[in-house]
Amino acid sequence: MSSFKTLDDLGDVTGKVALVRVDLNLPMNGGSVTDTTRVEASAPTILELSEKGAKVLLLAHFGRPGGKRNSTMSVSMTLEAVEEVLGSEVMFIPEIQGPVVEQSIGILRNGDVGLLENTRFWPGEEANDADFAAGIAANADFYVNDAFSAAHRAHASTEGLARILPSYAGRAMEKELNALESALEKPEQPVAAVVGGAKVSSKLAVLENLVGKVQHLIIGGGMANTFLAARGVDVGKSLCEHDLTETANAIMEAADAAGCTVHLPYDVVVSQEFAANPPSLRTCNVHEVAESEMILDVGPQAVEALADVLKTCRTVVWNGPMGAFETEPFDAATVALAKTAAALSAEGSLVSVAGGGDTVAALNHAGAARDFSYISTAGGAFLEWMEGKELPGVAALTV
Ligand code: ADP
Ligand code: MG
């Protein structure tokens, strides 16, 4: 992820047509948008181009229409939300290439913003068809990608266009790439990775990549159970992937060989039923979990030890909650560790980068999100980056 061009590299763009890939896959409820975070993320890019006098054409997918027009997935459903965030009128253009787009560009004044129809209405988008991309590019002067969340897909609007037009990272993309670089590519050492969540199977590649890159691998959540079981601990009726014992052992051996310390909890919070504040709730050593109990959170002693680990680190990258944080009191470890990371970040001694759908929710729940150095809202793309994969949308921007 060396060098990519940014909006700073643009010359005079007055009257030029910019194709700007954004993330408008907004959460909806009954036809109205419930959260505009993704629009807000790209607003600085759109407004900057608009202020510089470009004609800005927004490109985005919405849902999974599967290469066909589908009126229930028109990107026009996001139009009002986009206008509200930008504070200006946006012209909806119900096509993506051809004469309608050309005529619309003729109507747009310099600085105006247009919204093109759902890229996934055309099969060429997901097929990354070169002719399809060329048809879109024909109406534009340059391409800006501001949707890191879609960068793990090699689609026409995320990758193909960057191969045809002069290409730039938007401000949100630039921020994300810089944050990721400071977390795993060129981090200040020592680095800790916190990996939690439900299952090892969904994050195998993440763990395999991290053991070679970080000094401390902190494993919590349901996935810690699989590692504990692999070490011979009886985890009772905890969520546990017993078929992954060998895999877990292989990861611990790889960590050993790479000089990475794997941290597993030695005390845990358990109960016999999964409910809020259950009567059978107790904290115990991992070796004392009963047949009828399940591990639902990391215990307080382990949390204290993990906080001490973070205090010795300069960088932490975090994906996955430490426990079943949606249900009280199994949010305690996640909240405590998140607060420690947040406080160290606010103090300036730790660079903290986190991502993942439930992780973001958990950090918000802990009131820790604001003090983290960077929080990625890109679920799939963030995980693929943590797996060490090259993201096609990012690679295409790299010069
Ligand atoms: P992310 O979306 O941030 O990548 P995941 O989807 O992998 O995170 O994991 C989040 C889920 O893991 C949460 O719903 C949480 O309840 C669950 N979880 C965490 N710890 C446990 C546990 N000990 N037992 C069962 N589920 C757990
Ligand atoms: Mg999740």
Automatic annotation (TrEMBL):
Does Zinc show up as a keyword for this record?
no
* An example Gene Ontology molecular-function term: phosphoglycerate kinase activity
Q: What is its EC number?
A: 2.7.2.3
- Record flagged with keyword Disulfide bond: no
Q: Name one GO biological process term.
A: gluconeogenesis
Q: In which pathway does it act?
A: Carbohydrate degradation; glycolysis; pyruvate from D-glyceraldehyde 3-phosphate: step 2/5
- Give a Gene Ontology cellular component term annotated to this protein: cytosol
Sites where the protein binds substrate: D23, L24, N25, R38, H61, F62, G63, R64, R120, R153
What reaction(s) does this enzyme catalyze? Answer: (2R)-3-phosphoglycerate + ATP = (2R)-3-phospho-glyceroyl phosphate + ADP
The residues that the entry says bind ATP are K203, E326, G356, G357, D358, T359
The record's annotation in InterPro entries points to: Phosphoglycerate_kinase, Phosphoglycerate_kinase_N, Phosphoglycerate_kinase_sf
Sorted keywords for this record are: ATP-binding, Cytoplasm, Glycolysis, Kinase, Nucleotide-binding, Transferase
Compartments, record wording: Cytoplasm
The broad enzyme category this protein falls into is: transferase
Q: Which residues bind (2R)-3-phosphoglycerate?
A: R38, R120, R153
Similarity field = Belongs to the phosphoglycerate kinase family.
Which HAMAP family does the record associate with it? Phosphoglyc_kinase (MF_00145)
Subunit composition? Monomer.
Please give the name of this protein. Phosphoglycerate kinase
